[in-house]
Amino acid sequence: MLLGWESLAPLDLTELSQACKRAENYQQHLYGLQKKLKRNQKRVETQAEDLGKKATYIGDLEDEIAHLMKESEVMMSKMTLQAEGRVEDRKQLHSLKAKLKNHGIIPDDTRSLINDLIAKDGVNPERVLSVLNRMADHLRVPVEGSVSDQSTKRIVLEGGAAAKMQVVQCIKNAKGLTISGDGTTHKNNNLESHHATTQFFLGIQMAVNHTSETQLEGWVDLVDDLYSIYKHSSHCQSGEDARDFWIAVTGMHTDHAEDQKKLFQLLQTWKQRCECEKRGEETILKSTPHELLDILFKVSQEAIINAGGMASWENISQNERKTHHDEAFRRFAFELGEAEFAKLDDSQKKNIDLLIWAGCCMYKEMNAFKGGCTHMSRWWEENGVSGPIKMYNRDNAAAADLAAGTAAAKRAEDRTQGGAIKVSSLAGAQDTLRYFWDLEMGFTLCFPNTSNTRFQSHAEACAIIITYLDLILQFLSYCNVKHGCEDNATQHEFAAIGVPYMREICGPLRSPLHEKVKSHLHKIIADSDLLLSQDMSYETGSLDGKLWEMPEAIYALPHLSPLLTWERFTSEFLAGGAIDTATSEQIESAWMESTNDLNEAHIRPNMSLNYFNALQIYLKSLTSEEHTALQKLVCDQDSSGNNHAIKHTMAQHMKDVASQNADKDCTRAARIARAEEAIDGCDPYWTSQALEEAYKIQRGANGYLTVAALDLQLDWHIKNGKNGSGLEIPKAKSGAKGRGD
To answer: 200, 618 in Cβ contact below 8 A?
Structure first.
């Protein structure tokens, strides 16, 4: 135990020098003993490994001998039966049995078969044994033994754990690594999906909320879990930990939400911290014994100070001391690593800190589509043109027609929408359209599924409606939808909405593509004849110069105006940005998918996240061979109640949020009560003369009319009015409430 400076007796220089020499001798002796111990440990491990290999070899030989003996017996039986011509006894040739267990243990080949059936062939885990029995029965091979549902579940988890080992092993040899993620909410629970590059699905985790800080914590925990499993691999070397993963990360792929951009900034800081810590630790390992003693002394002193001094240090547990010591060591290593990093040249620093963010191209198109629809709906009012009619439902239509001028009519007007998107949503609900189309046209038309969330479904629906408008009008039975399709302004919106650039985003470099998109839009805005003229061509009108998606649907109006949506959602490709200034080698090391579909499509119900993640990781990654260690590890994890702990954490978080909201409600109610009390206690000015007299009072004098006092007067008159009735607060042109005339 290290003591404070006050407990050290004064020493003269001679004694101090002798003590240092003795300490150095002890250190060298200790270093020699440690090397000797390591050599002995290595020798023991090598001998144990040789014994294990020999035992395995002997076991394999015994199995092979038994197999050969069995084949010999079968061949002898076959020869005997053929010689005797006893056809009825040939069934004995099929008397071999398929053993699911060997001395009560499920062998590795059976485990692999079960994993393949579940992960690759989609067999229900509860039906695996039934499928095996049915296959064996069809092949006339009896099955001996059984596999329980619990064993089946753990076999899948073992496959996932083995795949995690392989993920880390591949990461070690990777030139670069990019990550991607996405979140959603299912039954009021936040779920986060994670991928690395394109080869590895890293799993889905529950999260108490969707803040950037919580998402970073989820990423860190996920990678820590990968490396905790990798420690059981024979490929794991000393000194490898989760920080190696973050140092290797060169890019991040998400949607365009602000929380994802903040997450990227947090990840940049975390990557730099991991790199500096590892660099500092490597520098410490190169230190001399004297330097190591000095470092240990400084770290220990800082740990004692952070614990509250020597008195507090004496009273805390060994685990708490270790925590303080580890934190102090990490801080020291980080500061040392920062100093070493500062010595590098700019090109080295840029390569080490390389981390590129890119937004999902699907979201770029979707956000641009949404932004275009929003600006198009505003165009009608801003330019004084009668816009699309409202699409009232039955109740809102009755309120608007029968109770005009009332609050109910105003509410119906405000809540009712119109335009191309609304009409295409209603038209998409007609399932019988396919049968009508087959009757009238001789082929079936599958109307885009606008009733559910389907990418580009509204764009495709608008193209179909404007192309086959006469037949659509003939078919429609709902009056409001028919009126919407007949409405001229709505038809204009149908014509302006189409399927944009999605077929172009699969190329290798997308920065020039997005500049091409913006340039093409500016060109169309400046010269609408590229789409409107009689001799317009897809070669100049379409983005890629190829045939239109639906040539018969290419209609548009000169209502185009410069929109800035594409500028906002292609910020990562701007000149001077990280992508623009990166070298071709850096771009290659930070390769990403053009869309975030890998994470978008991985939320499924009716199974635990651990089980689902194991299935998906096993399905997409190779597996390593450390089965024995994994079986014990998975058994411990599966019986630890980890899923229950996560659910309890979620429930506790919801409980805390509810408590916080209740406190906020109480605080808000108290604030409102105080405001009401202040208004009731106000002495109002009843005449303009009294108000003018109050204005004449000098600043700082008693009775001076402050802004707060003036607001209180306004609040009193708004609440009470001249005759005791409240006054309606006028609204500004912007829609915000004012505080009086």
So the answer is: no
- pLDDT for the residue 61: 78
Q: Please choose, from the candidates 171, 157, 120, 198, the residue with its C-alpha nearest in 3D space to the C-alpha of residue 599.
A: 198
Contact 464, 420 (CB under 8 A): no
Q: Where are the domains of the chain?
A: 98-147, 155-354+586-640, 367-577, 682-718
Model confidence pLDDT, tens digit, residues 498-528? 444 444 444 444 455 555 555 655 565 555 5
For residue 388 the two structure tokens come to: 């699309």
Please give the pLDDT value at position 701.
78
Residue 665 Cα distances to 504, 655, 675, 676, angstroms: 51, 15, 15, 16
The dihedrals phi and psi of 183, each to the nearest 5 degrees, come to: -130, 155
Residues of the chain with pLDDT under 70: 1-13, 16, 77-96, 159-160, 162-210, 232-239, 256, 359, 361-373, 375-376, 379-380, 385-435, 437-438, 443-460, 462-470, 472-651, 653, 721-741
- Beta strands 189-196 and 200-207, pairing class: antiparallel
SS (H, E, C) 521-545: HHHHHHCCHHHHCCCCCHHHHCCCC
Antiparallel, parallel or unpaired: β 177-186 and 249-254 = parallel
**Backbone phi and psi for residue 305, each to the nearest 5 degrees, phi listed first:** -65, -45
* Cα–Cα distance, 6 to 417 (Å, whole number): 79
Cα separation, 185 vs 192, in Å, equals 9
Between CA 247 and CA 554 the distance in angstroms is 50
Q: Output the six-digit token pair for 189.
A: 């629970």
- Tell the burial category of 552 from Cβ atoms under 10 Å away from its Cβ (0-12, 13-18, 19+): exposed
**Strand 143-144 and strand 98-99: pairing?**
parallel
Any bridge partners for residue 249, and if so which? 177
Pinpoint the alpha helices (H) of 253-317: 258-285, 289-306, 310-315
Tokens of 691: 């108000």
Identify any residues that bridge with 99 across adjacent strands, giving them in sequence order. Answer: 144
Q: Which residue has the tokens 């007299």?
A: 693
Cβ burial, residue 128 (10 Å; 0-12/13-18/19+) = buried
**Closest to 358 in 3D by CA, of 256, 211, 212:** 256
Q: Are 560 and 524 in contact (CB under 8 A)?
A: yes
pLDDT digits over 264-274, tens only? 888 888 888 88
- The CA angle 638-643-649, to the nearest 5 degrees, is 145
Q: What are phi and psi of 251, to 5 degrees?
A: -160, 160
DSSP codes, 352-366? HT--EEEE-HHHHHH
Query: How many residues in total does the chain contain?
Result: 741
Backbone region of residue 179 per phi and psi (left: phi > 0; alpha: psi in -120 to 50; beta: other values): beta
Measured distance CA(446)–CA(461) in Å, rounded: 10
Two tokens, residue 426: 């209603």
**Residue indicated by tokens 């189309």:** 437
CB of 522 within 8 A of CB of 499?
no
User: Is the four-CA dihedral 334, 336, 339, 341 of positive or negative sign?
Assistant: negative
What would the two tokens of residue 177 be?
């690594």
Distance CA 257, CA 262 (A): 9
The model's pTM: 0.46
Q: In the 3-class helix/strand/coil scheme, how is 709-741 assigned residue by residue?
A: HHHHHHHHHHHHCCCCCCCCCCECCCCCECCCC
User: CB of 462 within 8 A of CB of 424?
Assistant: yes
CB-based contacts of 229: which residues, under 8 Å, 6+ apart? 161, 164, 165, 168, 630, 633
79 burial class (0-12, 13-18, 19+ CB within 10 angstroms)? exposed
